[in-house]
Amino acid sequence: MPKLTKRAVDALPLEAKDYFVWDSQIAGFGVRVMPSGAKTYQAQYRKGGRTRRVSIGRHGKITVDEARKLAKEVMGQVAKGENPAEEIAQHRRAPTVAALCERFFDSHVKERCKPSTQREYRRAIDLFIAPALGSFKVVDVERKDIAELHHKFRDKPYQANRTLGVLSKMFNLAEIWGLRPDGSNPCRHVPKYREAKRERYLNQDELQRLGQVLAEAEQDGSETPFVVAAFRLLILTGCRLGEIQTLQWSFITDAGMELPDTKTGARRIPLPQAARAVLSALPRLPDNPYVIAGAVPGHYATDLQKPWRRIRARAGLPNVRIHDLRHTYASNAVSSGMPIQMVGRLLGHSQIQTTMRYAHLADDPVRRAAEDNAARLNAIVGAQETSPGLRLVK
């Protein structure tokens, strides 16, 4: 055949086996005819002693002239020392984002992250990342893809930003594992959404109502003594929920609670007398090492959210989270005049910036001191103004 044309390709007969017809004008450019009737344009060349072939496009989807132009481009790449067929094969073998997710979770998250973080990462992968990007090749993901996914959850800025953080870590590791070029993380320069920080503190009246409900729940048996004790300990120690939930009797010493593993590593938490009184009132169940015993023998109470929703409803605190008890502990400490650094140590913060969210509360004792001092001075000045012999100078 002197030259491939549309009419000539249309006229090619079907045979029992596939066969090739080559163009006379461009070496290596041809068409493959399949028994099924499919006809695809090909670019064929030799590289490393082997014949390599690149499928350019299907007849009918692209024209002969378009295929001829693409074939010239392929031959140009070969002339430059490239191997387009191998690049295509490598891309075909390249892992998908779904595969990267699983490798990331198995090789990194399970080995380096705490159980609570593992659950958070698993949730982000299963609910947000895999459904949107799972079928993408890792090498094909671009910044616009990440930005689009991030934008999709703009009404939930916290979740959008956490998902972006998980993706960023995944693609950093993809570079380390050789799945993407260095410096190609598509999450770079995707701005996070502003998050409205929730700083909910219980005032004195709310704390009194909560304390009354806890006492009533313990007396009427609507909640177990372990559940009631858990919330009292959270109020009195400022601990994180997981720290109290998984507290073991063996961790309690004369120095306080010696926790071997927390969000910020091993730490010692002071146990004030009020907290020790709560602990001393709790029974120690046989064969159960945990302070906050659960329904399953030998285990701790795994779900404190449900009883908390019942308790806060009885106390008239519908929007208060368990973590707000920790905020309340911190806010009371700062408002009483305790230095920020000391509050940070009590809370187990690894960075002072985390504790600085309560810094504005430190103004309260200063403001009260200023008022008291000015009131005393004003009383003296006022007494002098009414004293005989004083003259007002204008």
From TrEMBL:
| Alphabetized CDD domains for the sequence | INT_Rci_Hp1_C
Entry GO MF terms? DNA binding
Is this entry keyworded Isomerase? Answer: no
Q: Looking at the record's lineage, which domain of life comes first?
A: Bacteria
What the entry lists under InterPro entries is as follows: CB, DNA_brk_join_enz, Integrase-like_cat_sf, Integrase_catalytic, Integrase_DNA-bd_sf, Integrase_DNA_bind_dom, Integrase_recombinase_N, Integrase_SAM-like_N
Concerning SUPFAM superfamilies, the annotation shows: DNA breaking-rejoining enzymes
Give one Pfam family.
Phage_int_SAM_3
GO biological process terms on file: DNA integration; DNA recombination
Where in this chain does the record put each Core-binding (CB) domain?
A: 95-175
Task: Give all residue intervals belonging to the Tyr recombinase domain.
Answer: 197-371
Q: Which UniProt keywords apply?
A: DNA integration, DNA recombination, DNA-binding
Q: Which PANTHER family match?
A: PROPHAGE INTEGRASE (PTHR30629), PROPHAGE INTEGRASE INTS-RELATED (PTHR30629:SF2)
Family classification: Belongs to the 'phage' integrase family.
**Which protein is depicted?**
Integrase
